[in-house]
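Write out this protein's structure.
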Amino acid sequence: MRLINMSTYRYDVERFKGDYKEIEKFLNQNSLDGVELLGVGALDEDIIPKRLIKGVHLSYYPIWVDFWNEDEEALKRQFKNDEEIKIYYGSLDKQVLIEKFRNEIKMADRIEAKYVVFHISHVELEETYNYKFKTSNEKVLKASVEFINEVLKGLDTKIEILFENLWWPGLTVLNRVETRNFIDKINYENKGIMLDTGHLINTNVNISSENEAIEYILKVLEDLKDVKSFIKGIHFNYSLSGDYVRAQIRKQRNDKSKFTLEEMKKNIHGHVINIDEHKPFRSYNAKKIVESVNPKYLTYEFITTSLNQLNEYVEIQNKVLL
């Protein structure tokens, strides 16, 4: 099943003139089977009908482990006051996260999506710039197991739950045993991994070319051995941002040029896009990644500024893979 990422955000909806027929036309012209939707809570089925939605990307909080663990000291370091915490999470009670994700999964069930995607990661704002992480993969994965099992407890669903890798602390899929242990501890049968190729490339800031990135991904897949069978889907995209990341790390570790936290907040959206570019692969060798995994779901996950650019990126990706 070949999909494209889409959201309920205005800039995505307006591209298609708020008309589901325009979305269907785009999908048909590009040999796509449907969409993986972000923002299911704001879904208007007159604009994006449920028959087009094959997957749902659940909400993502980059900073959440300290809130889940009720670590007041860590929260005070990152938020000015309780009101700021409440604005970010919706409440001072961590139960709010459980209810939010349960409701999104229920909605995905109601519209008959085949799968949902969890981001498994945690990172503080300053760490996105200096890469001095205070939290380990182990701590993030432990909290994620606790949280996900609470979300799924007693939930009447058989939808496929897929866990997405990132380059921040959490599920990086670089360690076979760590990845397997995480999957095994989730108390749910219909589970697996959504491999994000761009996120995987981002775990190595020394990669300098597209073919080098492809070889890196193929080596990680080989090292996963039996765990590779848990990969049910791929977010297929390319990112080459090592030069940018290394420059930011140097800048942040030099006291004379360090950003303030307010500057970081102001620039964070553009900063993350500069790291995680979400571009198409252009090398025909990229097909080896798909052949190695043979996923049920192949989602083209791009960041684009217009429908024309989105069409261009999809055409590039189809040319490489079809």
